[in-house]
Amino acid sequence: MNIIEIRELKKEYPLGNTIVPALRGVDLEVEEGEFMSIIGPSGSGKTTLLNVIGCIDFATAGSVTVGGREITTLSDTQVTDLRLNKIGFIFQNFNLIPVLDVFENIEFPLLLMKKSGAEARKRAEKLVEEVGLKEFAAHRPAELSGGQRQRVAIARALVTNPEIVLADEPTANLDSVTGAAILELMRRMNELEKTTFVFSTHDANVLKYARRIVKIKDGLIEKEPAAA
Ligand SMILES: Nc1ncnc2c1ncn2[C@@H]1O[C@H](COP(=O)(O)OP(=O)(O)OP(=O)(O)O)[C@@H](O)[C@H]1O
Ligand SMILES: [Mg+2]
């Protein structure tokens, strides 16, 4: 089953009197349980594509179906629900909440989902442990290294047990050792929970981990070679 289906997706940004065509007719299918990477030069449309899949931004034209639901047919509330319940998003700059500690940052989406306190605590504790931050649970983001912050962002994206995790350059700010550990963690989640992962990267080390690589250039996906 395709968990993501994109047809003829166009995204244009108005810029002064002109428009910037960030995506110019993208077709993409992602099967449930895939672990795939989108690569392409700076400005090719990677972030735009992930943002549209993650309902952070919306298409100018074309169709985007996530988890069997065509996004343009959904109401605002349904989009919010989809984003909260089915999608985990790992932002390149982490977007952690500075006044909350590690544990609270990870638990936060569960409170938005109105999970009971006990259930939220239990699940957040599990994730804190899985990303190896137990001793740092009471630290605030400012007291963490880049790799530790990235692990918080990953735990927060995974805590709701989303069907899809979208990660924009998940290792961009990390040294190669930390980056490899993050990728191992993501791959374990993919194997354990069958979570679908779509991430963008420039990093050749990341590409080694991907089971499928999709190239994007000037807002268009290059045709994939037929599977061997
Ligand atoms: N909010 C915006 N307003 C105007 N143009 C934008 C906006 N966001 C992105 N763009 C343009 O859309 C194109 C695609 O940008 P995008 O951020 O998706 O590229 P990218 O592949 O993620 O690049 P990078 O590797 O540098 O992160 C670029 O030409 C960019 O300038
Ligand atoms: Mg980008």
List keywords for this structure.
binds magnesium ion; alpha/beta; binds adenosine-5'-triphosphate; globular; six-stranded mixed beta sheet; 7 helices; Rossmann fold; 228 residues
In short:
This protein has 228 residues and is α/β, with parallel strands linked by helices.
Walkthrough of the structure:
With 228 residues, the protein is α/β, with parallel strands linked by helices. It has helices at residues 46-53, 76-86, 102-112, 117-130, 146-158, 176-193, 204-209, and strands at 2-15, 18-31, 35-39, 61-66, 69-70, 87-90, 164-168, 196-201, 212-217, 220-221. The strands form two sheets. A six-stranded mixed sheet has the order 6-7-8-3-9-10, sandwiched between helices. Strand 9 (212-217) and strand 10 form a beta hairpin. Helix 3 (102-112) packs parallel to helix 5 and helix 5 (146-158) packs parallel to helix 6. The two termini are 20 Å apart. The model has no long low-confidence stretch (mean pLDDT 92). Adenosine-5'-triphosphate binds next to strand 1, strand 2 and helix 1.
Radius of gyration, taken over Cα atoms and rounded to an integer in Å: 17 Å
> Termini, distance in Å?
20 Å
- Mean pLDDT over all positions: 92
CATH superfamily assignment? Answer: P-loop containing nucleotide triphosphate hydrolases
Give the SSE string: EEEHEEHEHHHEHEHEE
CATH architecture: 3-Layer(aba) Sandwich
**Top-tier CATH class:** Alpha Beta
- Roughly how much helix do the residues carry, as a percent range? 25-40%
Structural class: alpha/beta
Q: Quote the CATH topology.
A: Rossmann fold
Lateral strand order in the biggest sheet? 6-7-8-3-9-10
Which segments are poorly predicted (pLDDT under 50) over 5 or more consecutive residues? none
Based on Cα principal axes, name the global outline: globular
Number of strands: 10
Q: DSSP helix count? A: 7
Tell me the count of domains: 1
- Quick one: biggest sheet? 6 strands, mixed
What small molecules does the structure contain? adenosine-5'-triphosphate, magnesium ion
Strand content: 25-35%
